[in-house]
Batch of 3 targets.
Target 1
Amino acid sequence: MSNNKAKLPDNFMWGGSSVPCQIEGAYLEDGKGLAIEDCFGVGFAERFGPDIYLKDPKPDKFYPSHKAIDFYHRYEEDIALMKELGINSFRMGIAWTRFYPTGEEEEPNPKAFEYYDKVIDKLLEAGIEPIISIAGGIPMEIARKHKGFASRITIDLYVKFAKTLFEHYKGKITHWLTHGEYNVVSYMPQMSAGFELDRDNVDFQMLYQGIHNMAVAAAKVMNIAHEIDPNNKIGFGISARQVYPATCKPEDILECVLNKRENIWLFTDVLARGYYPEYTLNFFDELGVKLDITEDDKKEIAACHPDMIGITYYMTNLVKANEEGHAIGNFSWGLPNPYLKETGWGWPIDPLGLTSYLIELYDRYHLPIVIEEIGLGDKDVLIKDENGNYTVDDDYRIDYHRQHIETLKLAFKYGVDVMAYCIWTITDVASMSTGEMAKRYGLVYVDQDDYGNGTNNRYKKKSFEWFKKVIASNGEDLD
């Protein structure tokens, strides 16, 4: 395969990625308000089950976001590690509730500017370009009072937050994403849109109105970003999952096509093309959904011109007609693929799925693509090396990224324009899907267990030195 790959461009962005609730900690410090993620406990059921939604944290329970890995106080140390690694970009989530604790304040919290100014300046000093993800945790008050994006009120509150960032960081930050994983709302609405749904009796009207409102908010924010600074490059992000038919049976092929429409293209078409395609309107009619779409909504969406699309890539799905499948690794819905290996958490590892997805996405929209998250979550064991230093022998993580970078280069050979490969993550963080520190993604080990116990010290894994070499060679040295 090596003779069939293209070299990565000289301006390629090698980076890392973060989300506020998984990295910052200090969850109510300096005036920060309560976000919905601050009420997600350890374990999948404690994070996304109906028993926890909209309830205040209990004093006798541990909530990973409250401490996270304390980036809020240790950002200088972590950015020094990023500089040593050699990354030139960092997709960083900005916490909505640091600027607007309830989401409804007229003026932003000045302490938020103090904190993020210091972090962003430190990144820029290290030669690291921030790619800012704006939707960093819906304020709990917006979820309680307005059911998040199920209400049109939240569109204006989100736009106010985004405009605050554009005006303050004009001339300093030029790369933005409106939502990191916009389509996750379809199966984790409490996380992305701020409302809970009964999975056994889904209120499709509420679900798709919330999805529409998120699209309108994203369109408005992209239009405002371009108005405030024509140098801004802004797009939206989706959770990318290539979908395969279980067999070449025509019914399975059709199921695959329809699955992509419902879970991927429904979200991307409206923002990348500027209108709702006919198939989405037919889909809404079949569900009995009557969206509240105003003339202003249509104008904003039509005027929206994203500069890029962000994707998070972890796995692929297999579907079969008339068969529901099951939850893959607590994250996605499909059938097991007999041709793929899985992580310890049951996530299928599929490097070539990245190539085919990139080709399909680029051919559809011809927009540059930012891989804003990609990584392997697995159990790591901290050991001492021959020099007495703590490290992790994570050859499995090295192999994962080696294969995906190989297939990324293959995508370039097929004409795809990819701007960035942002690894998830530089340092270990608590998993969003399960709330476990044991499910480690980082190139740097953080000494903390699932319940916040440990020194919180950082130790470079074997993969850190390997990725450093990869970046220095712009993806050529993968040995």
Target 2
Amino acid sequence: MNVLIVVDMQNDFIDGALGTDEAVAIIPDVVEKIRGFDGCVFFTRDTHGEEYLETQEGRKLPVKHCIKGTWGWEIRPEIDALRECEAVDKGTFGSIELGRILIHKDEELKKSGESGIESVTLIGVCTDICVISNALYLKMVLPEIRIIVDSECCAGTSVNAHKNALEAMKICQVEIV
């Protein structure tokens, strides 16, 4: 079984509070990737409360974003329309819950006589924050499963940050396609 993780394709990261032209530009590729993917698709959703600016992240990145229940928190409509299961809300860059779900799924598949998860592909935003955090976390908890990042379906906080994150992931044995 192959897994696709759609990381934080939310309004605030596309053309909202922390949006970029690059994030807007990848929308058609993300939609196409989800539609054509043969496997299980999960979505993450960056989720903060009204107290965001009082958190460590909020003090270091003082831009309110992805406040639960707001337009900015919502997954982009044309992408959300493709979602078949509940999104995994996460209050940190990487999702421990997502790791638990995938470990459990892999174990379930193996118990039933199947080969388990063969690969996990990540797409989304921001390459240099949440995509890299989730890719490296999944590489750590699922060390024998191929972890892949589709660079054409990712956007960073800047073009250089995107490229640097891809290079860092390569060094950590994440496949970049």
Target 3
Amino acid sequence: MFVKQLSVFMENREGRLEQATEVLKNKGVNIMSLSMADTTEYGMLRMVVSEPETAKAALREKGFSAMLTDVLAVRLEDRVGELHKLTHILCSRGLNIEYMYALAAGERRAMIVKASDGNAAAGAILEGGLALYGSGDIYG
């Protein structure tokens, strides 16, 4: 039901993102989706990767602050209203969407969602007629 998201807190300076992606490349880790948010001094890189534990360990070994978080990968069809359906389902249950970003890897299309209550959000999404990718679907 949940997939692991790799979050990397890093300084907002030239070359730092390139260094992080090089670490993952050298370990054979595929970046399937990412979101980058920044301030003037720091950034938060959130990614869904092929081997989350390997990626976390490799980045930490190179001095990056990296952690894993459970998120939902919600399957959405490519048609008008699908994203609204997702947001409506969560909003109608009083659940807050903390952040979301798109995943498009091969045939897999999804929104990566971090909600205020992951278990309640997963239940609501399934009851609302949408589907979730599991870790086997994403990493396999």
